[in-house]
Every structure is written in structure tokens, then in C-alpha cells.
Amino acid sequence: MENTGNLTMEQQDRERRLRWFRQARFGMFIHWGLYSQLGRHEWVMNRERIPAAEYEKLADSWKPRPHAAREWAKLAKEVGMRYMVMTTKHHEGFCLFDSQLTDYNAVKRGPGRDLVAEYVEAARSEGLRVGFYYSMMDWRHPDGVQCKRDEAARRRFVDYIHGQVRELCTNYGKLDIMWYDVSWPLDVDEWESAKMNAMVRQLQPDIIINDRSQLPEDFGTPEQHITPAKDGRAWEACMTFNESWGYTPIDAKFKTAWDVVSMLRQVAAGGGNLLLNIGPSPEGDAPPICVEELQKVGAWLQRYGPAIYEATDPMEQEWQITGAFTRKGDRVYFHCNRWPGSELAIGGLRNRVLSAHLFNGPAVRFTQQSDRLVLTGLPTEAPDPLATVIELQVEGEPRHVLGTGYRLLDEDT
Ligand code: H79
Does residue 245 have its Cβ closer than 6 Å to ligand 1? Predict the structure, then answer.
């Protein structure tokens, strides 16, 4: 039984809604929109100062393949992701959903279908949780900038944004995540964010809401860095595969499976999630390199999953070039991603080691003198080049402390 004794009713309800999210660990972010056709980043309209009239032609030329989302969802499921978040409207203003509030949407223009409905069906049929990304900033809406200077414009724009959020929360069944993005140029009162989120919760009592409507709500969203939230708040790091969110083939330096496994270990160690982005082509193909690398990650998780999904207990630790820890209770998992050969020395572990094993494998011999642990008789080649997990059973609260200065072996603390 959880001890909920010291939590307010509101906090208890938040923890109830967050329960799946705190255990999810790994999700797929999808950035898909008109910008995908240009292949030069999702900010292309703004960065290249493309006139709206010219950009809007992309709404008619976009002809994505039917049900492309099914392949993304299958991939997500296969590689160990538990949820998805897709852009329903990015800063460009084009709506991938059927909106009564604008004709600039996927049903009325080129695609001729509701791409959000297809996405929801695809994710649900793989048993994945469903999130909607929605950009509050809107470069195309005539009041999107004017709203800051003109009360009538603000009223119209806020009604438009709230109205679309209502549509999203009404027309697609049960949702798991509302993932707002950039709330420029208004402040929290001008946006009437509290009112908007109260509406969301009335329509979707189990939903969790991110922190980007200028209210903290349910979880934090570090972007392009992995930084745990304070005070036990839920959090999710969103990361790109290359350096763009939208389809950008000229941005060709992609993270590898090794990088992704390392990010998973970092989020697990901090009790958070990794929302890893894919920018599909305009037709709807995930870049082949992302598919290949994710499949390697999936195979790795098949083998080492428990050292990621369930090993989120906090543990003080410092860096080592050979790897880092996750922890569950008295089990400490050293994820060795730079294999040193038949001997692995770990300095700074302040607990007596009771046993050492390759994860789900044979015992490993070791010696321990003060805070120097030496594992011996290991394979000369890395058993797993992405990261080999070594499970240590330790005595007492696990601590890994080296300090910055030089310290003789027998000095304490
Ligand atoms: O969708 C992806 C990015 O396109 C988007 N978030 C991820 C998930 C993103 N948009 N902008 N940013 C990230 C960086 C933030 C820019 C901002 Fe600003 C600085 C927003 C508010 C201050 C630039 C200046 C935009 C408005 C004013």
C-alpha cells in the first residue's frame, strides 16, 4: 500500500492520474505537419520568412499515405515504448484534426482525412497511451501576434485556442496526455490557462497535463536535456533523434542505439521518462535510420528491461567513464557502456557488496578494498556493446561518492 497520508486530495488525485506515467519510461514523440514536405525543420516558415500565402499551398499538396501512424505505433510497441505524443497543430497553425474553428485542417485540405483520428486508432490498437501535442503559439492565426496589443484580438484568439483544445478533448475518446507547447506571446492570465485546464480536466478526468501553459500542472518537460525535476514531481525529457523535430533529411547526424540506451539509463536513474522524437516524411515513413537504431534499443530492452523500467530508486552517484548506475532497493545495476576488458574497477561505492552477477547471467568474482570494487574474470569483449548490465547486491542504502579531489584509499568520507 502506498502511504498517501500526507498528501492533499489534489495531490492524491494527481498521483492516481500519474501512476502509469511514472512507470512508462519510454515514449515516442511524432512531429508531422506541412513543414515535413519542405524537409528543413519545423520552424522553416519562420526561419526562412516564407510568406503565409506561399506556405499555405503546402496544405493542398500534402498527400500522406493512409494510416501511416499504424507503422509508427507498431514500431513503438515493438521497441518497448509505452506511449505516444503527436503534433495535432504545430506553430505553423495547420491542424491535423477536424476543426470546426478553421478550414486550415487536414480534413478540408490536401490529406482529406483526420490524421489525428488515424493516430489515435493506431496507438490504441497497439495498447499505447495517447498524447496530444498542441502549440498555443500560432504563426498563421490573424490574432496570433495582435492578441498581445488588442483586447478584442486576444478575446478571439483565446476563444480559438480554448475551442480547439475542447475539440481535441471531446472528439477522440479517452486521452492520456495534453502536451501544450510554446505559449508566446501572452501571459498565464491573458491565456486564461487555469480556465482552459479546468475544462480539459472536466472533459478528461484521468488526463495528465504538461507544464507549458505557464502552469506547472502534472509534469515537467525538459527539452533536449535530461534533468530530473525537484521535489518528486513527475518529469519527461523530450529529445530529438537528429537535431530537428520535423522531417529534416539534411540534418543527418542521428543518435545511435548506444546513445538512446544511455539516455534511458539517465531518465531511469532520475525517475523520469524519455519522449524520443521521430519526424516522419510527408508520406509518413519514419526515417530508416531511426527504425534500425530503435530496433536495437528494443532488443536491448528485451534483455535488460528491468534495469530500466523498474530501477528508478534514487541513488547518489558520480561519473565514471565506464558507465553509471540505476537502482532498485538493494540491487544496484551498473550499466557498463565502455567495456574495459576482463577487469572492471569501480571507485566510490560506499556499500559492502554481497554478490555480483552479469544481469540474468553468471556470478562475477570481485574484491573490495575500502571504496575500490574490482570485478575480475569478465569477458575480454563487451558482452553487449550498447551496455552490459552488472547487478550488485549491496548492504545498506546504496551510495556512490568520489568527491572532486584526490583521496587516499583508507581515508573516510
Ligand atoms: O516542437 C518542438 C520545437 O519546435 C518546439 N518545442 C519542441 C517540442 C520549440 N519551439 N520553440 N522552442 C522549442 C524554443 C523556444 C522558443 C521560445 Fe520564443 C523562446 C519560445 C518563447 C521564447 C521564440 C521567441 C519563440 C517565441 C519567442
Answer: yes
